[in-house]
Amino acid sequence: xxxxxxxxxxxxxxxxxxxxxxxxxxxxxxxxxxxxxxxxxxxxxxxxxxxxxxxxxxxxxxxxxxxxxxxxxxxxxxxxxxxxxxxxxxxxxxxxxxxxxxxxxxxxxxxxxxxxxxxxxxxxxxxxxxxxxxxxxxxxxxxxxxxxxxxxxxxxxxxxxxxxxxxxxxxxxxxxxxxxxxxxxxxxxxxxxxxxxxxxxxxxxxxxxxxxxxxxxxxxxxxxxxxxxxxxxxxxxxxxxxxxxxxxxxxxxxxxxxxxxxxxxxxxxxxxxxxxxxxxxxxxxxxxxxxxxxxxxxxxxxxxxxxxxxxxxxxxxxxxxxxxxxxxxxxxxxxxxxxxxxxxxxxxxxxxxxxxxxxxxxxxxxxxxxxxxxxxxxxxxxxxxxxxxxxxxxxxxxxxxxxxxxxxxxxxxxxxxxxxxxxxxxxxxxxxxxxxxxxxxxxxxxxxxxxxxxxxxxxxxxxxxxxxxxxxxxxxxxxxxxxxxxxxxxxxxxxxxxxxxxxxxxxxxxxxxxxxxxxxxxxxxxxxxxxxxxxxxxxxxxxxxxxxxxxxxxxxxxxxxxxxxxxxxxxxxxxxxxxxxxxxxxxxxxxxxxxxxxxxxxxxxxxxxxxxxxxxxxxxxxxxxxxxxxxxxxxxxxxxxxxxxxxxxx
Length: 650
Prior knowledge:
InterPro entries: HATPase_C_sf, HATPase_dom, His_kinase_dom, Sensor_HK_TwoCompSys, Sig_transdc_His_kin_sub3_dim/P, TPR-like_helical_dom_sf, TPR_rpt. By secondary structure, this protein is of the alpha+beta class. Among the domains are: 1-237, Tetratricopeptide repeat domain (Serine Threonine Protein Phosphatase 5, Tetratricopeptide repeat); 521-649, Heat Shock Protein 90, CATH 3.30.565.10. Helix content is 75%, strand content 7%.
């Protein structure tokens, strides 16, 4: 069943007035436009176009095009978008849907370009209506839900949300999901009632009346539709009156009051033709033709159906084309024109994409047989025996074809079931294997973590304790034997310091081993401790350490990656302390182009890269960087210091 589309586009007035007031408003707008220019004139012209859309479509087109010309002259994108919308509304009223779609899309593109969010929502709604009229329900819903999402997230006029809710309900109605339809209609109706918006209330109730046709509550449908019809007339929106008349005609037809329903259909058709609303016109014509069929007025039904089909094909109303073919196939069969009946049914079958359904195949064969029989009637009179033999042969062939068709369908179904079952089985096996792999991986990781913890405990308890014992023994030697030999004393101090440094290195290693992964925050804290220690032990050198705030401190590294980064930094700082004779060492951590850059630079004596051969320290830094997939760049020149840059992905 068909219902009234809620065609409230962007420039509808906030409150709908009566026909007399609407006329007064239109005269006022025309007078105002004579004194305006620029954006204010464009706004008035678009409003004039909207007012004329419901009474004089030619005038509506004139003012919409005039608005576009002025908008382009002043090069105002927002005004151009609004004017395109007005022109699209006019084409929609005429049923020229391709043009309406083009201009609504142009309007949307400009609104998105200039960031006009609410305007974009308006255009999404308008495009949804056009796609709905063209029968592309998926695209209609996509655009409606985009519009609804924006409206509900913005502070907009109260009427915009229920407008989209009703439009969504209309699409679901065409898909026969009536529970969803009533849900969306009731949501919209509550908003209108809460805001005492009469026009929204009457339109929504009219649509509910239309849904009642689908659930066969015809008396209630007539009641709602009559109320809506009267209120539309009172509000001055005569263009919508024939929608209600058509709904009443459908209800009367369903109640078998064919005489009254046909009169109402004709009244609606006349009004739709007057408004040049071709989409609704063809729908009403098909309804009248079906009513004629019920009274066996097949000639009248054929004429009405063919008139509708001509417009449907010209305008691309796909939703009605299949219905028209089906109707005409049945009518022409009743009129005895089996050739035409076969032609229309074949068109219907192709359109429904169901040629292999058993009932449809049977019907096609029956029509084809009747057509062939009619064609050879004269020949039958002369060659009855020959014709009987041919008919028998044709019947056998039909049975064979039908049998092969049924067999093919059965084989296809069996093949599909087998394929589907195998596919499900393969998916289950794949999931089981993935689960096994995940369990093995977890078990391996747990085992590795246990090994790390065991080794780190051994290092701490055994080697750590032994190194501490060495330091203690050296201190005892120094103080117990009162060593006065400066050279020996210096040697012992060096061994003690080396042992302490080894303990610090061992602690770093244990720290890394105890973690399955190291966050950037952990690494940063470790580097800070190292810099603080170096700053304490190096009196003549000033250290600077900076880190940008936009670096993701939650980024994680494996323990190997984290330790390699730390060792590279440690080696770079130690080299600067040992060889550069620098008064200042800087470390900067920055982020650029998705990469983290760590730069260690000094103002020391530097070196000529072409004159020296890199030692183990620098080579080890390069090897560590390569192991973690990072890039290390070393730059130095004499008396200008050295810079070491480590780059890795964030």
